[in-house]
């Protein structure tokens, strides 16, 4: 049964919008976006525009990054201890991914 609770993740998605979003010229060509997507995608990850650069409203290869789906629920809530715990978990699970570790470290720096 569907929940009427507006705090449910994804609830009321039709009414969610962010003003001022932009997309780089290259990504208006699906083939260029798909090439970036295929080169960077990870299983159980999604594209984020504002974790690499807080408050960012521009979609581009320089500003976007793939992050674990669990992070979609983590950051809106803003609880520092949960964010730090998740970043520490990711440091173990994804230790071999140097690019991802730079993102994790930058997030840890913001919250510690």
Task: Write structural notes for this entry.
The longest helix has 14 residues, at 80-93. Helix content is 41%, strand content 11%. The protein has helices at residues 30-40, 71-77, 80-93, 98-111, and strands at residues 22-23, 45-48, 58-59, 65-68. The strands form 2 sheets. It has a two-stranded parallel ribbon. It has a two-stranded antiparallel sheet with strand order 2-4. It has 112 residues and is α+β, with helices and mostly antiparallel strands. The chain is built from 4 helices and 4 strands.
Average pLDDT, rounded to a whole number, is 84
- Order of strands side by side in the largest beta sheet? 1-3
Q: Give start-end ranges of low-pLDDT stretches.
A: 1-10
Biggest pleated sheet:
2 strands, parallel
**Which outline best applies?**
globular
Give the helix tally: 4
Helix proportion range: 40-55%
* Rg result: 15 Å
Order of helices and strands: EHEEEHHH
Number of strands: 4
Instruction: Output the structural class.
Output: alpha+beta
Ends apart, CA distance between termini: 40 Å
The share of residues in extended strands comes to: 5-15%
Which features would summarize this protein structure in a list?
about 110 residues; alpha+beta; two-stranded parallel ribbon; about 10% strand; globular; disordered N terminus
